[in-house]
Amino acid sequence: MLYTIHLPCYPYVKKYLEAKYPSPVQIKLTDKLGKLIYLALERYPSRVEKDPELGATVQLLISQDIYCRKGLFLSKESIQLINEMVFNEIFDEIYLYLYNNSNNIGQKKYDTVTILYKQKSRKDTKTTSKRIKKPDLIYFIEVKNVIEEILAKYNLNFNDISYESLHRAYYRRKNKDKLQIAS
Question: By C-alpha distance, which of 31, 29, 23, 79 is closest to 53?
């Protein structure tokens, strides 16, 4: 027998979970989300506060075995942590893609790269080129384009989750990693 609970979540969390798992999401102890929700579940307390309004809900199916061991209640703190975990999972995928490209993992090494520039003047458009020896390829990867492509995998866009929050989180983590390497 399966029990249904409703997880309040942000709209981007709902889209991400719907793209990654079949709807309704069946909680299994074989994946990260299932383990997190299993740890967050508890028995109903004597006094229950109203669930937070986050804009969307996701149906979760819980097996009778999990229900008997843990219960069917998610606290406000657990709901918030689950939403943060999903944001971090999306962000980790973006960061790892950019990190792997900054270290040239899986890329062909180039001795030189030629960049074409289009310069417009009043009379005509002139194309010039510039050669760079031993280039660092991360400078040729547009962070915004990478973020858009990864969000598109999960039917997300910048209306669902802001570009600024992901961009700031990327640079915070990048600077944190630089400090850890330096020390």
Answer: 79
